[in-house]
Every structure is written in structure tokens, then in C-alpha cells.
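Notes continue from the previous slide.

Worked example: a multi-chain complex. Inputs as given:
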Amino acid sequence: VIQLDNITKVYKVGDETIRALDGVNLEVGPNEYVAVMGTSGSGKSTLMTILGCLDRPTAGTYLLDGKLTTRMGSAALARVRNERIGFVFQSFELLPRFTALKNVELPLIYSRSGWWNRRKRAKAALETVGLGPRMRHRPNQLSGGQRQRVAIARALVARPAILLADEPTGNLDSATSDEILGLFDQLHTSGQTIILVTHEADVARHARRVIRMKDGKIRSDLGSQED
Amino acid sequence: VIQLDNITKVYKVGDETIRALDGVNLEVGPNEYVAVMGTSGSGKSTLMTILGCLDRPTAGTYLLDGKLTTRMGSAALARVRNERIGFVFQSFELLPRFTALKNVELPLIYSRSGWWNRRKRAKAALETVGLGPRMRHRPNQLSGGQRQRVAIARALVARPAILLADEPTGNLDSATSDEILGLFDQLHTSGQTIILVTHEADVARHARRVIRMKDGKIRSDLGSQED
Ligand SMILES: Nc1ncnc2c1ncn2[C@@H]1O[C@H](COP(=O)(O)OP(=O)(O)OP(=O)(O)O)[C@@H](O)[C@H]1O
Ligand SMILES: Nc1ncnc2c1ncn2[C@@H]1O[C@H](COP(=O)(O)OP(=O)(O)OP(=O)(O)O)[C@@H](O)[C@H]1O
Ligand SMILES: [Mg+2]
Ligand SMILES: [Mg+2]
């Protein structure tokens, strides 16, 4: 369902060139559960941004469900993104002037649900991550781990085929983290494809496959038992 | 050096009242190394904000180095903060339009160093956290863990007597995290008082004392061996 071919992403800062991704080849099949690990700055978030169609590679091709994303215009890319992908950002990216509820309703604007149905589904998603009592709070009225969970609820509300989560438990205590990982396990069992970035071995253990990155390259790609 | 007496912090959202801190008593002596743990939303960041003189409690008193902070005006509070405290925020709070270097130089504006000395010290702080090659990058040109390390360097550059760090390794892989914790160990050995919030037991292990919070209260306060 995902096929990256010799993907490169280069940034320029002043007269410096940074190869954030440097020839990445990756295939992920439907209903896989993959963990991405690696040192700070090794290219994990950049990889996720490209997988999520939020940014284009400098070189290489990305086939998503057989379609060549690298040839699509930005309107087509946005449509694919909204229909197929749920994304949890490393820094959450919530809209500061809206409540948790409004933030979670947002992805459903593109679906064919009426406003009452959107509200109902957004409430259910927030309750699933334990934020029932905090729906009317805005992001600056929430704790770090609560904002993280709003970001997770928002990524899941439209029931996307592919969930991309960048450090989804980085701000969560172990009990809350276990609840979220239990939720991801259920989603995986019901057919979802999950790719998550984590720096914690306990979290990676929930995945079936572990990819390790270093300096913009994939260094190892093993079953989670062998990793 | 730190004495909290029956500290309460209440927020109002609509007609709802949230007791983020609910009668907290805490004493921390000079050169202690304390870890604060607890579930998401239990009041850890609110506690840190009050300790860091970044916010005032709703009730209760806070004696810092024998001075009653709760009676100080905001100018006096700001001075105490700049002279005594280094703060690492859970969401980093870097200035987006400035480079990593400028961000780290900022706390030294209050000190009596000339600009050349400030630049030299900021560079040294960034090199200590492994960001020598990234000094001229702005926050949106950095990875999550790199931003976290800029926030750490900024908190340390003025060599504050008290370091308050809210989840300082939340976005760091284990190797980079060990480097940062090694740095904190050195600072502790050289006399600094350190209070850090963490949700990871491996990180809390570096501290000498572990405080656990729940629902705005301190539930346990033990030596890190007994915790
Ligand atoms: N400005 C605010 N207005 C209303 N409620 C708030 C505000 N800031 C925090 N809260 C609430 O106060 C409680 C404590 O928040 P705090 O940020 O201290 O939690 P925390 O222990 O740091 O959590 P986490 O581990 O998720 O970072 C939370 O339930 C939160 O929703
Ligand atoms: N917009 C940008 N401009 C310049 N360099 C960038 C930009 N975004 C990222 N980088 C650089 O690209 C490299 C990879 O960044 P990326 O965010 O993918 O790392 P990461 O593996 O997610 O790290 P972390 O674990 O710290 O989150 C880093 O060295 C970073 O400094
Ligand atoms: Mg990242
Ligand atoms: Mg917090």
C-alpha cells in the first residue's frame, strides 16, 4: 500500500545543504504495524511528513495505493490525505483558538457527515482517549499529555486506513500510554495500517516490525522480535 | 531553598472549576535532585510553573531562598527568575523568528556579559547538547529533539542555581537522552538544585527523590531507592 523508491529530501540553510532523507527505500503492506526508531535528527519526522503527503520529496517516487503521489497536484494530494491518512504530529499542531471538540471535528468536514453526526463522532473519539471532561477546553487550557491525546483523537476520528503517529506517547505517563497503545492494538486488529515513530522500546514492542534510521537512511528493517 | 505551603491553583473554564493544584506542601533543600511523576493532568506542569515564578498560586505561600514570592511585584519576580532559575518548558517555547544561537543567548541579556561573551557562552551551551552544527537554524528548521535540546541549552546557559525541567527527554532517543542526563548529573555534582518532571522510570532513577502527583496533590514523596 506504501512504496517509497530512492526517496531523498534536502534542505538548504544559508549555504549549507542538509540531507534529511538520503535514498530511502521502503515498502509497507496493508494492515502492517511498523515502529520507526533512530537518533534525534535521523530523519524520522521528515519520513513521516512525506508518507503523510504533507511534503514532497526532493527526488524519488512515492506510490500510495498504486498512485504516484509525486505526480499529483496539491488539490489531489490533499484529497488523498483527507480520505486515507490520519496524522499525529510530534508537536501536535492543534488550532489554538478552537476547543478540543472543534479541533477533533475538523477532519470530518471533508466527509459526508452532517454537523450533528460530526459532533457525535468527535465526542466519542475524545472519550476514547479519556478527555470527556476536557472537550470544551482550548489547547492552552490543557496539559501536555491532554493536547497529545486531542491530536490522537483528531487523527483517528475519520477512521483513516493509514495512521501515521510521530511520538504519540512522548508526553504520556505509562498508564495513559498503555491505554493509547491498547487502542492502537485494537485498530490494528480491525484492519488499520499503523506506522509510529517512537524512541521507547516498550512502545516499539507493540509493533510487528521495527525500522531504525540514522543520518537520513534506513539502517535496519526487522521483525520486532529480532530487532 | 524552596518551600511551598498549602499551594492551590484553580482555573475557571466556563462555569467549571478545575483544581490543578489542591493543597501542595513541598520543601526542597539546596543541591537536591528531585523527579516529579504522575498521570497526565495531575498538576506537574502547573507545579513547575509556580516553582519557576512564571505564575502565581490562587492560595498558599511560596518561599524561595527565604523570600516570600507571593508578595513580590512582577518586576521583582522577573528579576528573581532571571537570576536564580533555568526553565525547560514541556513545549519548549522557543522564539520562532530567531536562530538556536539567538534563543540561547537570550537569558544572558540580563547578566553583565558583553555581547561577545554572550555569544561565546551560548555557543558552548549548544555544543554541550550536541547542536554545534545547528546553531544558525531556526526552530522550524530543527527536529523535535533538537528543539528540545535548544530549550535545555537556553535553561543552562546562565548557570542558574535551580534547574526546573518539564519532560526534558520526552522527544529524545535513548542515546541522546543519556547524554543529557549525564550532563544533569554533572551539574548536580557541581552544586545545582534540579527538579525535573518525567514519565519515564529510567529518567527518574537519576534523581535522589521521587515525588508522585495525582489530582493536584502530592501522593508520595520518597527517596528514589524506595519509590
Ligand atoms: N489554563 C488552564 N485552564 C484550565 N485548565 C487548565 C489550564 N492549565 C491546565 N489546566 C488543567 O489543569 C490540570 C493540570 O494540568 P498540568 O498541565 O499541570 O498537568 P500535567 O501533570 O503537567 O499533565 P501532563 O503529564 O499531561 O503534562 C489538567 O487537568 C489541565 O486540564
Ligand atoms: N525545514 C528544515 N530546514 C533545515 N533542516 C531541517 C528542516 N527540517 C528538518 N531539518 C533537519 O533534518 C534532519 C532530520 O530532521 P527530522 O525532524 O526528520 O529528525 P527526527 O528523526 O524526527 O528527529 P527527532 O527524533 O529529534 O524528532 C535534522 O538534522 C534537522 O535539523
Ligand atoms: Mg522528529
Ligand atoms: Mg505537563
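Summary box: Chain A has a mean pLDDT of 96. The first strand of chain A starts at residue 2 and ends at 13.
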